[in-house]
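Collaborator request, handled under Task 6.
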Amino acid sequence: MPDFDEIREHKDVVRYAILRGLDKKYKKQKQFLLDGNLKSVDFKKRKPYSREVFQFRIDKKFRAFCFLDGKILKVFKIDDHQ
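Structure tokens returned to the collaborator:
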């Protein structure tokens, strides 16, 4: 599994989370990732695997998409999973 020390998000991701009331849930899942509890957020690589894009669960409906840049996990999108 990937190793990262920090999580950063694009400004549009923060705005999207706030508008949909996901900001508290997102922060909680972000802390789980930083603590190394990847299983509880269902952190996994997306297909096609060669693109190196990962996802993690925010709640039952929303997922965050990210990629690794060195030791930094960069979240570039939150999307409706359903």
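The cover message to the collaborator said: "Residues 23-35 form the longest helix (13 residues). The helical segments are 11-19, 23-35. Please let us know whether this matches your experimental observations."
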